[in-house]
Amino acid sequence: MRKSIIFPSTFCLLIVFTITACSVLNRSSTSSYNPVIAHRGAWKALQLPQNSIASLNQAIALKCYGSEFDVHLTKDNILVVNHDHDFFGINIEQATYQDLLAKKLSNGESIPTAEAYLKAGLKQKHTKLILELKPSKLGKERTEEAAERVINLVKQLKAENMVEYISFSYDALKKIKALEPKAKVAYLNGGIAPHKLKADGIDGLDYHFSEYQKNPTWINEAHQLGLSINAWTVNNPTDMKKLIVQKVAFITTDEPELLLKVLAEK
Ligand code: MG
After folding, report:
1. Does residue 12 have a pLDDT over 80?
2. pLDDT averaged over the chain?
3. Measured in angstroms, how far is the CA atom of residue 70 from the centroid of ligand 1?
């Protein structure tokens, strides 16, 4: 008889404890939600050059989740960081690294090598290095060559836990995954449904935010499949808030300060 009185009260206590613990955990996970990926570094507010080491350092100073940067391979097989296929008019794939040193970024930096860029990023641990591998204009083989060199560099620097990969090239992502199955890779181009990405071993969607408006079921579908979801390039607070409500894990922006402010107001 006594046992039957104690049992329900213990059970009730257990339920209260579980509910309290869960709500504490939920609060802490909400407060640590940091979807901010600085697009080409945090360059805009301080008028730094995009894809410079200075813009990477500013993204790190802001404590963004990640800082995105673009990688190409020169004619003499040096991986360099720049958005366009040309650097101040010099075609990167047709140039040697030495050729590219003829020009400087507006803050006096030379075009960063991927090695120098990663080494700068590896001085800290809180901001991930989001490496966009640009598809080669010389064809699939050269893109795959670049992918192989990127993976070798990341291994050499022991940076596996700090680097995530994105690309408009499905071939590049598949090559990266084949060389390094633990690598996190996300596809940029849009147009491929979550179940197809999952079947191909891609880890996430990193689509222009309009793709999610055109395909309103994709965010839920991706969540259910355990794929990561990123949206680019989101510079407007209204669009930022819509994506935050939809629990999009990552938001790539030219305005990391603004996104951090929107998150702080929530
Ligand atoms: Mg990019």
Report:
1. no
2. 91
3. 5
**Cα Rg of the chain, angstroms:** 22
Distance 59 CA to ligand 1 centre (A): 15
Q: Which two tokens stand for residue 170?
A: 């499905």
Q: How far is ligand 1, taken at its centre, from the CA of residue 94, in Å? A: 20
Give dist(CA 218, CA 224) in Å, integer.
10
pLDDT, average across residues 241-246:
96
Q: Which two tokens stand for residue 185?
A: 């890779």
User: What is the structure's pLDDT at 31?
Assistant: 58
Q: How far apart are CA 11 and CA 15, in angstroms?
A: 6
Which two structure tokens, joined as six digits, stand for 122? 């590896």
Three-state SS string across the chain, please? CHHHHHHHHHHHHHHHHHHHHHHHHHHHHHHCCCCEEECCCCCCCCCCCCCCHHHHHHHHHCCCCEEEEEEEECCCCCEEECCCCEECCEEHHHCCHHHHCCCCCCCCCCCCEHHHHHHHHCCCCCCEEEEEECCCCCCHHHHHHHHHHHHHHHHHCCCCCCEEEEECCHHHHHHHHHHCCCCCEEECCCCCCHHHHHHCCCCEEEEEHHHHHHCCCHHHHHHHHCCEEEEECCCCHHHHHHHHHCCCCEEEECCHHHHHHHHHHC
